[in-house]
Amino acid sequence: MTVHNSEIAVLFDRLADLLDIEGANPFRVRAYRNAAQMLRGHPRDMDSLIKQNEDLTELPGIGKDLAEKIKTIVETGKLPALQEVEARTPGVLSDLMKIQGLGPKRVKALYKNLGIRSIDDLRRAAASGRIRELEGFGAKTEQMIHERLEHFTGKEQRTRLFEAEAVVNSLLEHLRRHKGVKDVTVAGSFRRRRETVGDLDILVTAKKGADVIDHFVKYDEVAEVISKGTTRSTVHLRSGLSVDLRVVPQVSYGAALHYFTGSKAHNIAVRTRGVKKGYKINEYGVFRKDKRIAGRTEEEVYESVGLPYIPPELRENRGELEAARKGKLPELITVKDIRGDLHCHTNATDGHHTLKQMADAAAERGYEYMSINDHSRHVTVAHGLDKKRLLEQIRAIDKINEKLEGFTVLKSIELDILEDGTLDLPDGVLKELDLTVCSVHYKFNLSRSRQTDRILRAMDNPYFNILAHPGGRLINERDPYPVDMEKVARGALERGCFLEVNAQPSRLDLTDEDCKMVKEMGLRVSVATDAHSTSNLDLMRFGVDQARRGWLEKGDVINTRSLRELKKLLKRK
DNA sequence: GCCGTTTTCGGCCCGACTGTTTTCAGTCG
């Protein structure tokens, strides 16, 4: 049974919460939280690192003690240090910390004075009016707790990036309508292009902050004003998203943008570098004593700590500072590098447009090639292609290609990987294709080892080229199926196959961590839209964003190659 | 608990907003 990084992270976070409540050294608490965060963003499972005898203390924020604790968790599934603390302090108190406005001190006071341990206890206490009697609490705090509890579900809901984009545009228009507003920028995880955002962080430069904030909270989508000062404000929108607005003077724009883009861990690391040079870095600038020495642009901020500019997508404290220091930052892929789309459907199955329409749309976007990948017969709901219909499509593509100049439609398919690892159509027809994209569409509930074997067996077929949406997840809708992605990637590398970064914004599959993992392995990927309509071809930018977050460069992505080079790459040994 | 071209000990990012306080603690990002 493999213990995953996220499970180790949960234990560390819980221990951090309980130690925090007990009033332990806050830096010790932070060490556990940092470790948890590092683990969540690490591309490879600790389990596999330990098996390969790698030194865990090489990982950022992991010393001798935490390395031992990780080993213990991987071997036993348990963290004895947590069990010791839980003997003194109930573990469920950690749940109370998840309520916005309740931190370690208040949770401790509620527990010590009112015996509140669980969310249910807290509900009863808030309803009975006992909380306001506590020292340091009052009627407003009790009311706040009462209201937060009404919407509390226990799990954090993040909004998918493309949905956040839809919300943000009209809000930006509203802000720009105010005369005092100069620059408006969306920062935070939105700017880092994370697949989901927790809230929207918007930075505005203006002389009079208070006026802008007054204008901001009057936006007609605002459901509730959480806080409102002269330089920052937080609101909840009707859509459910929260928005943080921050107003700074123009001279602080770069420092503020850096601060507000995050991630938090990246900021701390940069500021710590500043401290070592005798600087203080905050959202207003870089200061030596009280003198501002930088801050108008982000470049200036990085320069002040001796680093080149680091693109937002890399700012997760996953090694980007070290890479920057050594001059080894990746030259991230851009949308312009993409020369073709290698996963597109037509109305022959579940797409909305004809072969001709799709080809024209791809050519209009400046591509040199595209592949047509309709479903195979197993996907009956999409009226998947059997051998006969595929052969008809192949002939249709040949006809279209005769008429096109400087653009080629590649003959392909999205082939189902059957439960036993065979492919859904016979080799006799697959050999007529330029490439295949293969995917798992059913039997998601196999064990991790069986799912992994199923995919590897499929890759043994010499006509297998690209594994589509390798994890099978739908963000916020369906978890990925259990699979050993590292083993799958290694299998692909050994066999001359590739993995896909599916650009559908609800898929974004491979994940950013997995992109980084396969890059370090030397495996290349295809970034493709899985377009089901002509307009879907424009989703490419989301896939490229994800690839950038995974440190991918042009050379790591096969559909940045010319058609000739691509065909060479696709030839299996 | 981590970490080191100032350090193996003594630091550890920094500021805004709220509520309960009469100057600040708690929380958040």
How is this structure best summarized?
The chain has 24 helices and 18 strands. It is an alpha/beta fold.
Figure out the total of helices. 24
Largest sheet properties: 5 strands, mixed
Cα shape: globular
Tally the beta strands: 18
Description:
By secondary structure, this protein is of the alpha/beta class. The chain is built from 24 helices and 18 strands. The strands form 5 sheets. A 5-stranded mixed sheet has the order 2-4-7-6-5, with helices on both faces. Helix 1 runs parallel beside helix 5, helix 1 crosses helix 7 and helix 20 packs parallel to helix 21. The protein is globular. The protein starts with a helix and ends with a helix. The structure holds one DNA strand of 29 nucleotides.
What tags apply to this protein structure?
18 strands; 573 residues; 43% helix; 24 helices; five-stranded parallel sheet; alpha/beta; globular; DNA-binding
Question: Helices, strands, pairings?
Answer:
Layout: H1 5-22, H2 26-40, H3 46-51, H4 64-76, H5 80-88, H6 93-96, H7 104-114, H8 119-128, H9 139-151, E1 159-160, H10 161-176, E2 181-186, H11 188-191, E3 196-197, E4 200-206, H12 209-217, E5 222-228, E6 232-237, E7 242-248, H13 253-261, H14 264-276, E8 280-282, E9 285-288, E10 291-294, H15 298-304, H16 320-325, E11 340-341, H17 355-364, E12 369-372, H18 387-403, E13 408-411, E14 414-416, H19 427-430, E15 437-439, H20 448-460, E16 466-467, H21 485-495, E17 498-502, H22 512-521, E18 525-528, H23 540-549, H24 563-570
Parallel strand pairs: 4-7, 11-12, 12-13, 14-15, 15-16, 16-17, 17-18
Antiparallel strand pairs: 1-3, 2-4, 5-6, 6-7, 8-9, 9-10
Helix pairs in contact: 1-2, 1-5, 1-7, 8-9, 13-15, 20-21, 21-22, 22-23
This protein binds one DNA strand of 29 nucleotides through helix 2, helix 4, helix 7, helix 9 and strand 6.
